[in-house]
Specification:
heterodimer, A: about 100 residues, four-stranded antiparallel sheet, about 30% strand, globular, B: about 200 residues, alpha+beta, Gyrase A, domain 2, Alpha-Beta Plaits, 2 domains, Sarcosine oxidase subunit gamma family protein (chain B), TrmE/GcvT-like (chain B), SoxG_het (chain B)
């Protein structure tokens, strides 16, 4: 059993959560200008680093809210959780783009 | 043939656990390790949504008469009258005894402000589990911390019991109310009856 801290509900069992993949994947500024290759890259290509990784999680059995987490993919340890409108507390290789946190 | 007009349709209601009524009564365990389960049918439930800090939130808090809970676990009001449970940062569930007319007051209080007032009375049923062993029964399948130091009387959280998502509400000492969706009520009640069975025997050290 692993406890994950929800920014709204506090620590809860991992079974209450759903995983949402890599966080901070920016929506293309002009989607219609993308070719198929670039669109596929946006939709399907995700980073898979060893170490700290910013991810999206949803507390599906609790408050049903999405939030971001920095997790160490080697140890599974959650280093930080933050709401979507909060700045990333720990730097990761997939950090949000300058000027935005989405 | 005389025309029959049914004006009071509430007599046609069937609660989600009506068919298990006698099983729930027979499943009760007496004594020091006692625990019993029953259904509180047809409670009025109204889903409320309003962002804290907005006019809608202020208006709804005033209209409920007991305010709105501010953070996870909190319950505004009390279990015998009107209570409002926290189910998300901008989402609340008002629970009141059967027959309580609240919807129109809340709808007019919300007005045109951004928010939501929805009658959810048929969405969930209320199962009450009480007795000295109630917490031990729940801890077989609920991963949340139910120790009295953190889960005190008057606390409610959204969690799971086994595979079933429930609202778990400690309405009094040794009394828990579970609110599963109506379609999960049968499973939840049978799960509880199974979990309660061992407490009829003496503990094995």
């Amino acid at each position: 059993m692993m406890l994950i801290e929800c920014p709204w509900c506090g620590p809860r069992n991992e079974t209450e959560y759903g995983y949402g993949g890599e966080a901070h994947v920016a929506y293309p500024a002009d989607p219609s200008a993308l070719n198929d290759n670039e669109w596929a890259k946006y939709l399907f290509y995700r980073k898979n680093p060893k170490g700290l990784f910013a991810e999206r999680w949803v507390h599906s059995a609790g408050c049903r809210r999405w939030f971001n987490a920095v997790r160490d993919t080697v140890t599974y340890e959650f280093k930080a959780v933050y709401k979507p409108d909060e700045p990333q507390p720990i730097k990761t290789t997939n950090a949000p783009a300058q000027g935005g946190t989405k | 043939m005389a025309e029959q007009v049914l004006t009071e349709i509430s007599v046609l209601r069937t609660s989600p656990l009506a068919h298990l009524q006698s099983a729930l009564e027979q499943g009760a365990v007496q004594g020091d390790r006692g625990v019993s389960v029953s259904e509180i049918a047809f409670m009025t439930q109204i889903g409320l949504r309003a962002e804290p800090g907005t006019a809608a939130h202020v208006a709804l808090a005033a209209a409920t008469g007991v305010g709105l809970p501010a953070a996870v676990g909190q319950v505004a009001g009390d279990a015998n009258g009107t209570a409002v449970l926290w189910s998300g940062p901008d989402e609340f569930l008002l629970v009141a005894p059967d027959g309580t007319e609240f919807l129109d007051d809340l709808l007019s209080a919300l007005g045109q402000e951004p928010g939501q007032v929805v009658d959810l009375s048929a969405n969930r049923t209320v199962i009450e589990l009480s007795g000295p062993s109630a917490r031990a029964v729940l801890e077989k399948g609920c991963p949340a911390d139910l120790h009295p130091r953190s889960f005190t009387k008057g606390t409610a959280i959204t969690t799971v019991l086994g595979p079933v998502p429930v609202l778990l509400w400690k309405s009094a000492e040794d009394t828990f109310r579970l609110l599963p969706r109506a379609s999960f009520a049968d499973y939840t009640a049978r799960w509880l009856l199974d979990a309660m069975a061992e407490f009829a025997s003496a503990p094995i050290d």
